[in-house]
Amino acid sequence: MAGEAVSAREAILTRIRAAQGRQGAEPDATQLERVRATIARHEAGPLPGNARNADPVAKFRAECDRVGTTHAEVGSIDAVPAEVARYLRANNLEARVAAWHEFAELDWTAAGVAVDDRPANPNDRTGLTGCFCTIAETGTLLLLSSPATPKVTALLPETHLCVASKSRLVNTMEDSFALLRRERGEPPRATFFVSGPSRTADIEQTIVIGAHGPYRVHVILIP
Amino acid sequence: MRVQSMFFKKNATEKLDDAVLQRNLRTAKGKFVDGRAKAVAEIDEWEAIRTHAAALRDRALADLDAYLVEFERNAIRRGTVVHWAQTAQEACAIAVEIARANGVRKVTKSKSMVSEEVNLNERLEEAGIEVIETDLGEYILQLAHEPPSHIVAPAVHKSKEQVAELFEAAHKKPRLTDIAQMTREAREALRDHFLTADMGISGSNFVIAETGTTLTVTNEGNADMVTTLPRIHCVITGIEKVIPTLEDFATLIRLLPRSAIGQTIGNYLTLTTGVKGPGDTDGPEQMHVILVDAGRSKFVGTEMQSMLRCIRCGACMNHCPVYQNVGGHAYGWVYPGPMGSVLTPVYVGIENAGDLPNAATFCGECAVVCPVKIPLPDLMRKLREQQFNERLRPWTERFAIRAWSYAARRPKLYALLTRFAAEFGARLGGREKLIHYWPGLDGWTRGRDIPAPEGRTFRELYRERLRAPWRVKP
Fold first, then answer.
1. What residues of A are in contact with residue B301 (Cβ under 8 Å)?
2. What are the residue boundaries of the 4Fe-4S ferredoxin-type domain, all occurrences included (chain B) (predicted)?
3. To which CATH superfamily is domain B63-298 assigned?
């Protein structure tokens, strides 16, 4: 198997290189240098005018409306439990969430919400996550996987609540990648962009919300 | 999927007579075409972004070997096993071997056209492995034992009633007719599979050399289940999918969902890079990427290389008058519409797909809407030339083209013949000025009328105008 795989690699690369007028299977040093230099430039393409925002928060909220993500703004992180309680009540949902560890210490008792400090499992109805940053252009939440930030909490429950800081709102996906490089060096195992609840239009192009992932995505903006 | 492209004419005729299909295609057409137009109009820099995207795809293809090697290096660094497959058979053998070596019994799949291309499901099932398609459209087709008819909306040819029938038989529950309820039922049926599969197989819209990353774009979130929950994640993708950087992905994702279905972005995009780390509670223990050639390298370095820019949005088929009327199955292989009319003959051999480059009106709309500016009509024309030169078209057609070419190079003869044809056409058209039947062109006149010529040729009018311009009405 391994032997075959190596020869397929050589055969494919040799064929490509022959078609490009080059010899052998391995790219030479100059070529690799050129390719790495191109990568290192991280050249961004032209940005649409509507991605350069005077008011990124307003743009973010408008784009959330468009993709079906609901949103609320609270004055501080301490106000998150009350907003979660309000949202769950308003949507007739059980007052229980599986939450990322970073939110376990908030005062949930006063808000009357039970919190499970563990990754969500398939029986959980609501998952509470934070996010790495948010993107105004498309109303997108960017979540990064890590031991403390399991992706399943945003994926398995029917309701996904997400706490997002306005101070970490960027204009474009390009900006989010620059932030990622600056703070983490390179992408983690899963770099997960969420723009609205799960949907499908596979039966007669009729849009149905809640295909396999969440039916509801609600963002709670904090300062 | 077996190649049936040599039967295009026969298939197309059948599809034109299929009333249910015709209704479903008409519904879909409006949504795709209008949706794209609206989404594109919102962006003032659309043309500049397209130009940049075409250039960045070309740049990656010009150094395809080096970008692949760079991708491989970074993927391995992150714990991914990279495999290379020259053919469909090799690709399947690798996937089956990964499954066997790990005692895999059940595979969940998110939509991948490459896996359709190489018949992966069939090969896995032969090896005793259960395969579950999880994209709702693909799931419907798996129940119907049919191939996809569209690369973005695989079950676009099916009506609600047809789906209801399939679900009733498969789920053994009372028949539903409400689309939302039907979707809910499928969600529940598939949930269990997501949670119990040993291996997830996905495609990858692009692979990123910089970081060794593969990625999925879905609205349903099914690819996220498939790439997060099972202990093994296997990606099957084409060698042409490599792009240099994350920024390149940001550019291309502005084009892809807008061109495909008129959305600003897919609901769930995930970049997957390597295996779960220490302390991670989710993510696969093994990640494999199978880089598939299977005909792609035949485009490299040729005048048809621009076809490899394709980002699989489906805009060309959505806007193609031929696709709009016959649907995807008539094309007889995985890739329908204009993109398929170029890909199929090259991948499977032009002798097996002779009608496809001719299944076009050359209206040019596919090139107009293509987000990465692939000159699809030009590429089809090159394939037509190749067919002509290799004598792969019927002798009658080749004779007619040769006769035309002979006459066209002799102006006096050409003038005489066109004058004769114009007069003959005018007479055939009669008072209605419509030709119902033209001898020898019955393929043209069977379903429509040709407007009759006025009786004089362009050259006659032109000459007259030169001689006495005041006598010719503008």
1. 19-21
2. 301-331
3. NagB/RpiA/CoA transferase-like (3.40.50.10420)
